[in-house]
Amino acid sequence: MALSSPKCPSSQFALRPSPAPRSQRVAAASSSLSCPPIPRRLFSKRVSSQSRANRRWNVASVHDARTLPISPAKEIDLKKVENGVSSAISAEEYRDLAGLSTRENSTVSITVVGASGDLAKKKIFPALFALYYEDCLPEHFTIFGYARSKMTDTELRNMVSKTLTCRIDKRENCSEKMEQFLGRCFYHSGQYDSEENFAELDKEIKKHEAGRLSNRLFYLSIPPNIFMDVVKCASKSASSANGWTRVIVEKPFGQDSESSAALTRGLKQFLVEDQIFRIDHYLGKELVENLSVLRFSNLVFEPLWSRQYIRNVQLIFSEDFGTEGRGGYFDNYGIIRDIMQNHLLQMLALFAMETPISLDAEDIRNEKVKVLRSMKPLQLEDVVIGQYKSHTKGGFTYPAYTDDKTVPRDSLTPTFAAAVLFIDNARWDGVPFLMKAGKALHTRRTEIRVQFRHVPGNLYRSFGTDLDRATNELVIRVQPDEAIYLKINNKIPGLGMRLDRSNLNLLYAARYSKEIPDAYERLLLDAIEGERRLFIRSDELEAAWALFTPLLKELEEKRIAPELYPYGSRGPVGAHYLAAKHKIRWGDLSSEHYKI
Ligand SMILES: NC(=O)C1=CN([C@@H]2O[C@H](COP(=O)(O)OP(=O)(O)OC[C@H]3O[C@@H](n4cnc5c(N)ncnc54)[C@H](OP(=O)(O)O)[C@@H]3O)[C@@H](O)[C@H]2O)C=CC1
Ligand SMILES: O=C1O[C@H](COP(=O)(O)O)[C@@H](O)[C@H](O)[C@H]1O
């Protein structure tokens, strides 16, 4: 049943103070739908900013906010009372109260800081174009590239145009749309630590805002050591005077608990938490977002989601290429910081959290924090680390990690790790959560595997299959070839009674004709809309680092040598022993895995 209107609507900007967070939009039922439209009150307790404001804040004592003129933040002298605490309202809140954001009078300016870099070209500009193509960007928007490299607007457009693509299923007016999009992209060259250069950027942005209400999004697509310079300069010289200013921060968010806390403290000198959008692009992946839908909207799963029925959960990330080109960055971090502490742990938190009281960002993030805080910090004996070595196959020699010129020859940085984690709460007590992440393995795949317990006293024990081993397994394949499938034991048709393992299979490509949007599209749209659900809150980050920091320190202090594994292999055998210690077999290595 279609519940919605057919456009992503810039119209939402006209209808309401600020665009509805995505959690309030209904999924498109019609294949002609582009960006999903807004359902009010369907899922979330946060309805519109307007009603939220009226519900949570005591503004009646001030005066009718709707009669107030547009006013910069510093002139605002309204108070809100939230949970009994009185504080000044922000410019954004003010605007919402006064109903001042409308399509006609508001703009969004998106500045990609580090626009000359790899991520900007590969992901950010293409994602912005996809949103534009789908009519998901507001009517008045401008995109600025900012970096030290000297470039003209035309040169930026040429650079960006090389990486723009249209969706396979939507090519109508593609080149026309690209031209229109590129016409909205501008470039400003400047230093990252120059308030003056950011003040010049501010002037450029203002020209395009043309007196409209100004909303500004800064995407920090730069190495982390310059985050603070940029945040300081942008907030002092280029933040919005009368609308919102938001900053998307790319990972890594520090290297351990201390450095991460220092970064958070630094950011909070210039920004409040609500302005900081810490991105973990795995949270924007379709199947990761679907985790909660699967759990909380299907009666069949939620009752099974506990130690009573689940034997173990496996979160597996593998890439079939090495750190080629990123060795310099990677050597300072390693696979535990690059993948486990963020992408896999975020998936684990979503998988294991208790039911949030609503789909409101804070309710979900509260539950994620709780589950992270219920986990025991990792010990050395819970972990196996590896590093890929050179391997020759079919006459081609694949390099070792340490063959990279930017990596020290004696580097002990792990390119592979396997770990066992436990959640000390009533739901998950004793259930091993296994993580495995590696580069230069035999395949590229990310998945969650849920292995269920065996059927007690199984009647079919003597019919061919070892039913204690062939237990049900639910696989959520995040990428590639997105799928959800459930392994079951089934009777082979015929007069006899023989069982085999089969899959109940939801392969996305077969079920849905719509191309799956890139994670960055979803996350950029959310940041523009002020939807924080898929971004990492500072306390979540703190809890995540608390789990891994002691282990990382011990690995580094004791200079633990990683087990070498050949490029293109299945990783170190130590990972099997680690699983075997807990009487577990990695699901991705069983023979059935390859039948799918
Ligand atoms: N690339 C990827 O696939 C991913 C990247 N990330 C994160 O995103 C951010 C950007 O990544 P990516 O685009 O690969 O980074 P780049 O190394 O390409 O850097 C981006 C831009 O920053 C400037 N820059 C680079 N090094 C320095 C330096 N030492 N001092 C000052 N400026 C510098 C350069 O611009 P100029 O010289 O013109 O100023 C460069 O074009 C990083 O935080 C990274 O960790 C996260 C996930 C994946
Ligand atoms: O954050 C990172 O992710 C990529 C993998 O992302 P994917 O969306 O292509 O699966 C990884 O290659 C990189 O090392 C890491 O920094």
Automatic annotation (TrEMBL):
Q: GO CC: one term?
A: chloroplast stroma
Cross-referenced InterPro entries, in alphabetical order? G6P_DH, G6P_DH_AS, G6P_DH_C, G6P_DH_NAD-bd, NAD(P)-bd_dom_sf
The segment(s) forming the Glucose-6-phosphate dehydrogenase C-terminal domain are: 293-586
Recite the UniProt keywords alphabetically: Carbohydrate metabolism, Glucose metabolism, NADP, Oxidoreductase
Please describe what this protein does: Catalyzes the rate-limiting step of the oxidative pentose-phosphate pathway, which represents a route for the dissimilation of carbohydrates besides glycolysis.
Q: Which family does it belong to?
A: Belongs to the glucose-6-phosphate dehydrogenase family.
What protein does this entry describe?
A: Glucose-6-phosphate 1-dehydrogenase
> Native species of this protein?
Elaeis guineensis var. tenera (Oil palm)
Gene for this chain: LOC105048984
